[in-house]
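INSTRUCTION: Work out how this chain folds

Token vocabulary: learned, describes local backbone geometry

RECORD BEGINS BELOW THIS LINE
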Amino acid sequence: MQTERPLRLVIAEDAVLLREGMVQLLQRFGHEVLAAVGDGDALLAAVREHRPELVVADVRMPPNFTDEGLRAVRTLQMEQPGLAVLVLSQYVEQTFAEELMDQGGQRAGMGYLLKERVGDVGEFMDAVARVARGITVVDPDVVSQLLARRRGPLERLTPREREVLALMAEGHSNTAIARRLVVTEAAVAKHIAGILLKLDLPADNPEVNRRVVAVLTYLRGEDA
């Protein structure tokens, strides 16, 4: 598997084995890891020094293991609006995912994955590549919880439309959705048009990232 081009990255993860494993994996695929650090303060310093294209960061890091990584990412997104960020978490932390989408979803690539996805090399590297391209990528387990929280208009959707909506929210393109569901791209486009119509979301915005953010915003129960 090859990504489109080598990336310049900074990694922030306090678990040494996971951090070093990600470094080796990313380097194996031709990417340049500019720094690999273990806490939020070091993440801020490394990104400010090296100006990477993408950051891979844990949500919870020393000293308190609460939201140090998330707070560092928020600061960096304000300082560098074009910075792509892929955040990792041990558990599904829905609020953190929503806050990240609010902070960066419309300005640069944004991803939120469970750490267990790193063990699937293809899935992890695909997420890295898509986030670097400016796409919003959300872990399927988080998407499932967002869908479960939201009723009302979602009940208007057919089972197939709900499948398409979940894949949209995960950041997949129409082509990828068609491949996953073994249907034509024209069929996917028709399903998406129906979804946006039923959810009262605009159907005329061609930007994939904005489309995903609009769907996630609606699922959170806010005005799209």
Remarks:
- The longest strand covers residues 32-37.
